[in-house]
């Protein structure tokens, strides 16, 4: 099969997943609104924290506002949908059908994720623009290079996050439910990626540890670039690290899949 | 039906569910640990912030952790004993609710016993520890009356939580969709009550004190226990909020049930 034909296959999978999100748009919009409740709560919490203070942990209030918005965007680009779709396939046994198809399971799931992410990203961006117009003092970068680097790092963040989600989902081969695994993954990712609080707030040892792990590539890197806390060369280096984790997790996912399918027990005859 | 009979039935139904989950015990532990971990990491978040600043608009670390933990503790009690309300959507959509209607047992009781969220145990445990630590680390002048009121406030908090969950999930009678998106959104609104409501604009304060009285789970009990000036006496409204939300939830559930027309095949 030629490369073009192969790509075409996965593009149609991505397209289908995009349409899937469209079909269930009401649930998706309610979901997005539900997530923005959390953003509102966290926003006012931070506002209280900054009340009468110039800077906390090296971030000014204006920078923190920007940080929260960028975090929200990076978080909602790959959300619940892709999370439950993969583990769901494994738990209900429909993965057996995927084993029969002449497509790579991992690539197909990634294509699905990308398809949904596209729409999720677009909708979150709209929501963010609404938020941003109500807020004063959000610091936007001026240089177009920053936006370019940010877009690239956001895409890389999706790859890394997919890697983490995929590995977590494969764990469902050994369990009978996905909820606990999903919750654990979300909790760990939120803390160690900088989604809850910038890594600079952590005590020294925890910050060092977080920087050594892949999670920081999901939130910390895009926000560093958008807030211009990293210059162009530093940004490229950070994106390089994201790519390293993206590739590493991809291969780990592949290895784990190859091992897991040999242990598979599917419900029913 | 008498209360004692209801309790007896509740216990019997509950034990049956318990047997069912103990069958899958690996999941049991994963769920419990993940719920506990989620809560602990949220606690770490507050700790990291308070490591940098002494207070948030006059609120001390242990006062905020108390509110934070109350939200999780009541959630834990809700999932452990009343998880079934989260299955209502599926019961309505698959028409399984038919079975419940045929039995001479209150439908709401059967719904409550449709499942057990064992994750609640993790939340109860960690929430309990955090609340205990909050009380130990704060200068509170304890009297028997204060302890009794605290227990009363715990009870009202759980009632409010469970009622709001039931109300949110009753949306399944109107929204014909397999998902849980709407009740989850109602559930997520409790995020607002994890922190002092004084941080929020007036509109949000009123909303989480009246429409969805989550503030009576966390904030108002905290003002009483830590003796916040300017808020004395407000906790007295907690039982009112509890009775109000329970009545409203039951009303909404009954009304939804009267509209229930099963699924056609």
Automatic annotation (TrEMBL), chain A:
It comes from the Bacteria. InterPro entries: ABC-2_transporter-like. The chain crosses the membrane at residues 28-46, 122-140, 147-176, 182-202, 209-230, 236-253. Keywords: Membrane, Transmembrane, Transmembrane helix. Pfam families: ABC2_membrane_6 (PF06182). This is ABC-2 type transport system permease protein. It comes from Paenibacillus silagei.
From TrEMBL, chain B:
The keyword Transmembrane helix applies. This is ABC-2 type transport system permease protein. It comes from Paenibacillus silagei. The lineage of its organism: Bacteria, Bacillati, Bacillota, Bacilli, Bacillales. Keywords: Membrane, Transmembrane, Transmembrane helix. The keyword Methyltransferase does not apply. The chain crosses the membrane at residues 28-50, 65-86, 107-132, 144-164, 204-227, 233-253.
